[in-house]
Structures are given as structure tokens and as C-alpha cells.
Amino acid sequence: MRLPEKPPFLKAQEPFIxxxxxxxxxxKLQELxxxxxxxxxxxxxxxxxxxxxxxxxxxxxxxxxxSRAVNRQIKITSDPGFSxxxxxxxxxxxxxxxFDLNLGGSLQGEGIIPSENRDRYLISSLMEEAIASSxxxxxxxxxxxxxxxxxxxxxxxxESEQMILNNYxxxxxxxxxxxxxxTQANIRQLHSIITKNTLSQTSEEGAYRTDNQVKVVDVQTxxxxxxxxxxxxxxxxxxxxxxxxxxxxxxxFFIHPILKGIFLHFLVGYIHPFSDGNGRTARTIFYxxxxxxxxxxxxxxxVSRIILASKAQYARAYLHTxxxxxxxxxxxxYHLKCIQTALEDLKKYVHRKTTEKKSMxxxxxxxxxxxxQIAVLQDITQDxxxxxxxxxxQNRFGVSNQTARNDLTDLVTAGLMEFRKxxxxxxxxxxxxxxxxxxxxxx
Length: 443
Description:
The chain starts with 15 loop residues before the first helix and ends with a helix. About 60% of the residues lie in helices and about 5% in strands.
């Protein structure tokens, strides 16, 4: 990834009106203000726009910065390095409005996922988030293999699979413990779950780093792009983090919970309290905070899957914030866009699955198969090379071992599946003439 160009240094700013005269004469002031409000671009974009407008680059940037002077300031500590700028341009407000309608307890949120399918969708989404968050940190395995491991409750075969299993356990932990306060002990426990058997030293699991060897490096040039705070300050900084997250200390103005959740995500990466696993911990804490605040639909969405598809933008969002005097707005907008994409993907996924279910129900309208069995039959119609185990059905649908076994053996009795022994395990496969037999079951 090419590193962003650092914005030019500006001396004490002139009043906005004085700065904007030349741009207004060129007829570009309103375009500048609209671009800032609807896109909030970084310096490099403004530089090219200035050239296109025929106006000195630094003057355009000075007007942009003057217009952003209304941004709120959040101080986590008295250290100037922990003072952050928070803007709320129109693009941010639009996202927040939509999320307030959809992610909480509103009618729209209730309508996105049918209540009878929530347990199944939740298990699937937690798996997707665990896989993507681990792949962001270098887990080298396919989504299909990783999901099979989680569904079959198989032991991890390598470190990548262990990372994914740990992330899954971490996501389940925050769903079950969403009401716990943010404390250093709870965050360390979460980190220990996420990093179990994946670090060079087991003593680092759930423990703050004890040196300053951790740096964020540009892999192409080898240059250090960010140096986290000294390890000697971690106890103090994480205590302030917890007070801020628990709203014991807070600024004099309201911070929308979704923005605060994103800010907490950013802060874990910024403080970098652990030798490894900071990214996975940060993303899990984001979910934890939003669930605590009542945004229940977020647990059905894999935001990390969207981040994984835009890794370079994710890194740039951090760098833009740090390079522009800790202006957090860049990171907020990037993350809000990811949530928006994840929400749209969830809607499409649920719609597709609902449509598939209706089609299969129509095909099987005269049978007595239950929803789980119909879901298995749907999967087979899309891929007749699939096979299933009792453990896989148990984990996928959150049912007992006996219920899962009954589901599969009933399909064998119906002549739609057959079983084969695989060591101590029994695998269930679709029969060769599956489609024809489905039709015969329709009586």
C-alpha cells in the first residue's frame, strides 16, 4: 500500500472569511463546502481539486481546515497525543439516522430477520465474523474449510484455524456477557480467549506488552508509520479507556453510541496494549459496546468481512486520522460505510434465504420435513457434493445432539440421504438421484 501524503503544515489560521475570498471569486466555495460535508476527503483529494480549480493547494487546504474548526475535541488523557477531533458532516449524520432505524429495536430492525430464524442466523454470522477478523490478521485458510471446522466442532489443525476458533469463542463471549462493564480484567480475559495457543509465548495471552518493540511498519518500505505509547503507560491508558467506555468520564457533548463504538475500536489499535491480537480485540470490543447499547442487529452482521475486502482503505483510514492531527472523522466515515455495506449484505442474504425457503416449501408442501431439514435440502439442491454430520447440524442450528441425529436419520428414512462411516463419525450424503426423489416425496 502506498502511504498517504502528509498534509502541509499551516501556521495560525486566518479567519474563514478572509481565507475563502479567492475561492469564492473562482466560484468554487460552495463546491468545496459541499464536498467536505458529503465526502470529507483527505488532503490528497483536495490537492488535486485545487489544481483542477487553478487555486493554490495550500490555500484550499487552509479553507478546508478552517471549515473543520467547528469539530469537537475529545481528550482521553491530558496528553496532547490523546486529543482527537470529531466532526459530524452530513455523510455521518445520514449513516447514523439509517442505523438508528435499522440496528436497534425499531420496527424496521425487527422486520429484517424473521424471529423464527434468528438463532440460525446468529450462529452463522458469528462464524462469518470470526473467520473474516482472523483472515484480516493473516489466518490462511478458506472460508469453507473454516466454517466446516466450526460447524463440525473439529479441533483446529493449525494456527490459522486456532485463530478462527478463538475469534468465534470471543464473539460468543461478548454476546453472552454484553452487560459486563469494560474493565481491564475483562478486556484481558477477552484477549486471552482470542489469542489462546496462537502467540509465541503463552504468558502474553491476556497480558499487556512489556516492551516497546511493537511498531506499525509499512511492509513495502520497511518504514515505521506509527509507534504506539510506551508499555509503561498501558495500565494508565487502559484505565482511562475503560472510564471513557463506561461513561464515567465523558466530554461535555453527546457522542452517538455508534460513533463511540468505532472510536473504541480505533483506540485499541492506537494504544496497542498487547504484543499481538490488538486488531481482533478492537473489532470485538466494537461489537461488545454496540450490543451493550441495544444495537442488537449488529451481532447478525459481519463488519470484518467488509473490512477484509477493503484492507488498504482500512489502513488508510487509520493513517489519515493520525496524519491529520488525530482527526477521527476519516476513520468514522470508513467504518460507517463498512457497517452500511454489511447491513445491505444482511438484507440481501435474508431475502435470498427466505426466497429459497419459500421455493423449497412449495416443492415440499406435502411433506412433514421441519425447517432445519428443509435448510439441509436447500443446501443440497445448490451443491449435491455436500455432506453433513450430526455435530455439524447440532452446531449450525443450535439444537441438541439427538435432535440433529433425528433430523438426518429422518432424511435417510425418506430416501433422500444415505450415511457412511468415517472413523468414529458418521457422514450423511445426498443420494445420487436426489432431485428425482425430492419430487417423489411431494405427495
